[in-house]
Amino acid sequence: MSIARKLARKELIDMVPYQSARRLFASGNTPQGKIWLNANEASGNGNYQVNSDSINRYPDFQPASLLNAYSNYCDLSTDNILATRGADEGIELIIRTFCRAYQDSVLICPPTYGMYAISAENHGAGIIKVPLTAEMSLNLTDLTAQVGQAKVVFLCSPGNPTGNLLSKQDIEAALELFADTAIVVVDEAYIEFCPEQSVVYWLDKYPHLVILRTLSKAFALAGLRCGFTLASSEIITMLSKVIAPYPISAPVADIASKALTKLGLEQMNMRVQDTGVLRAQLSTWLAAQSWCSQVFASDANFVLFRCQNLELKDFIFDSLVAKGILIRDQSKQPNLANCLRISIGSEQELSLLQQTISNSFTTTAAPTMAKEN
Ligand SMILES: Cc1ncc(COP(=O)(O)O)c(C=O)c1O
Questions:
Q1: Measured from the CB, is residue 87 less than 6 Å from ligand 1?
Q2: Which of 56, 101, 271, 284 could join 124 via S-S bond, C-beta 3.0 to 4.6 A?
């Protein structure tokens, strides 16, 4: 047995890491030459100049320019904000701060974002699953049965991969349920696509509420790795004890601060509007296809849809991969049999996707479709 296998934590040996969009298609593929519609990134390149004046120095633990810029944007004091390496680091910090390894658990509501479970597993925290209902809402009855069992509850609104919002009423009901026993995390990674639905203004009322945000989606900065955890100053102080000493590099702080200026926010808002138009077009097109049995309503920068059967799902996915167009297979998640997810890329990318699917049905032996009633 190798020294690595002999000494590693036993549960790591067979653990499957998060199958990120990039890892899934890693073999020899660079982002160039492919159409990446599988990670809910924005299309188009950024255009930022980086200031390298003090690059010989360690950055501030939490660069003031960045915290002030985000504080202006979200209307909270800087004491309520922790900048992190993406929202993913926020997820990990919350679990490491509140869950004792091999003793405490997190609660997730699948189908949901994969990193809650991966981070919990990595840390040795248990995972309690309370699936969403068939309508993709919280199952409050089943959540009630779990009160006291989990230290951290992860809610995702708008949800990934579903795209729908959880009702504010249900989020509040969950906050009331877990008021004395758990931190309730509301992951708002996609909230810029429906900003009026944010629950950020409940932070005053609910000291156990934590909100996750990111610059990876509407701000089109997934490659920057910058996110924010919003919470009571007491929770932020605790997370600050667990995070690395210099989490935000100077170039990241510099670019992120620029993205949060008046101009950066205007550009972000325009991107959100354009995304909404393209999303509506794509949803309408999908709904008109005979192989598509369901298009999920989305308040985010992606659309989830269900194919009539497994063969059709695989056929569509593989036809796109053959042409270098990558979308995400979500069919292994509960209630999402035969479902695929498409990120809203550029107009050209989406029209190429539609053409490619249409062509594949005319030129190849496509699987048969069920008769419509
Ligand atoms: C719901 C949700 N939360 C968090 C993240 C992670 O975001 P970041 O790129 O900021 O780590 C993602 C990324 O896809 C996501 O979909």
A1: yes
A2: 101
Q: Quick check: 215 and 268 in contact, CB under 8 A? A: no
The CATH number of 3-42+264-359, from 3.90.1150.10, 3.40.50.970, 2.40.10.240, 3.40.50.300, is 3.90.1150.10
- The answer to whether the pTM exceeds 0.70 is yes
Task: Looking at the structure, give the CATH architecture of the domain made up of residues 64-259.
Answer: 3-Layer(aba) Sandwich (3.40)
- The reply to whether ligand 1 has any atom less than 6 angstroms from the CB of 112 is no
Q: Quick check: CB of 224 below 6 Å from ligand 1?
A: no
Q: What tokens were used for 16?
A: 């499957």
Given pLDDT bands bounded at 50, 70 and 90, which one contains residue 364?
low
The domains of the chain are located at 3-42+264-359, 64-259
* Ligand 1 atom, smallest distance to 214 CA: 10
Calculate how far, in angstroms, residue 189's C-alpha sits from the geometric centre of ligand 1. Answer: 6
User: Is residue 84 over pLDDT 50?
Assistant: yes
Q: 307 - beta bridge partners?
A: 292
Beta bridge partners of 4: none
Report which protein residue has its CA nearest ligand 1's atom 3.
Answer: 189
pLDDT of 270-325, one tens digit each? 999 999 999 999 999 999 999 999 999 999 999 999 999 999 999 999 999 999 99
Residue with tokens 């390496």: 85
For residue 23, with 0-12 CB atoms within 10 Å meaning exposed, 13-18 middle and 19 or more buried, which class applies? exposed
> Ligand 1, closest atom to CA 216?
9
Reference 47, options 220, 216, 193, 218; nearest CA is 220
In this structure, what DSSP letter does residue 33 have? Answer: T
Spatial separation of the C-alpha atoms in residues 190 and 214, rounded to whole Å: 8
